[in-house]
Amino acid sequence: MSTQISEVEQEQLIEKLEIFKIHGRDKRGRKILRIIGKFFPARFLSLDVLKKYLEEKIFPRLGRKPFAVLYVHTGVQRSENFPGISALRAIYDAIPVNVRDNLQEVYFLHPGLQSRLFLATCGRFLFSGGLYGKLRYISRVDYLWEHVRRNEIEMPEFVYDHDDDLEYRPMMDYGQESDHARIFPGAAVDSSVSSFSMRCIS
């Protein structure tokens, strides 16, 4: 990760994009830390600022009770949103022991073939404390509601759009077809990161 803006601007960017949000509960009543991977501005954040933000704004709010992480991998591109392997390890190592021990599940939504292979080959070596064993791959939003209270979680619209793509282009699940956005004549692209949908609620 590289820094091109001031520390204050980086913190403001994290807040504005709502990359990390303690939001809702799973079916076992545990708090959920929702992380939207696509919103992560890896090119603009320094590792120190990110660790400071988590230590001051996120970890204290998790308290001393068990919690779960919902990581939304939809739309993540290595060149734009991926902080790097060494940064991931440094972030994980910086998590206080009591917080790490209270982490019970990591719901990994829309993992994709590459991330599955990476975690299968390197996950056990990169992450100590049994984190790899806490991963739960979730291929569709509908399957997520088997674990998470659906009326308590908001998702960006592009997450549901990706689900629709997977229904019509199932080979994307296996890395056999690109998941890059398709361009249609007359289609407008909305880049707003605050466009959320509650259409899943019944």
TrEMBL record:
<dbReference type="InterPro" id="IPR001251">
    <property type="entry name" value="CRAL-TRIO_dom"/>
</dbReference>
<dbReference type="Pfam" id="PF13716">
    <property type="entry name" value="CRAL_TRIO_2"/>
</dbReference>
<protein>
    <recommendedName>
        <fullName>CRAL-TRIO domain-containing protein</fullName>
    </recommendedName>
</protein>
<feature type="domain" description="CRAL-TRIO">
    <location>
        <begin position="13"/>
        <end position="162"/>
    </location>
</feature>
<dbReference type="InterPro" id="IPR036865">
    <property type="entry name" value="CRAL-TRIO_dom_sf"/>
</dbReference>
